[in-house]
Design brief:
By secondary structure, the chain is mostly helical. The chain has four helices and two strands.
């Protein structure tokens, strides 16, 4: 008999639904410096960006984007600039497909 074990981790959002820099880094298995790079390349926006990274707050959409960037780095060994471009293009394709579907047109 083969036993398969799964482990999961969870990040709890505070009452505002925002993540601190350390929480975002931890949720992605990265360091705070990596999160700073995400902000610098424009992949995610931080509330309080004028202050130090320890005071930044991120919405849940930033977590989704950061996790996608981490996956692209892991699976395809791309840099954050390339990951930002890929994620932006994926979003644009989804938006265009949605517009076509709304007009009754389908892409193959």
């Amino acid at each position: 008999m083969v036993t398969i074990k799964h482990s999961f981790s969870a990040t709890v959002l505070d009452d505002t639904g925002a993540l601190a820099t350390t929480e975002l880094a931890h949720a992605c298995g990265a360091g705070e410096d990596w999160v700073v790079q995400l902000v610098e390349v424009g992949l995610v926006e931080a509330e309080g960006h004028e202050g130090p990274p320890q005071q930044w707050r991120f919405h849940s959409s930033a977590l989704q984007c950061a996790l996608e960037a981490r996956r692209l780095q892991r699976d395809f060994d791309v840099g954050l600039d390339a990951a930002a471009l890929i994620i932006e293009l994926q979003g644009e394709v989804r938006r265009l497909k949605s517009m076509l579907n709304a007009q009754g047109l389908r892409l193959r």
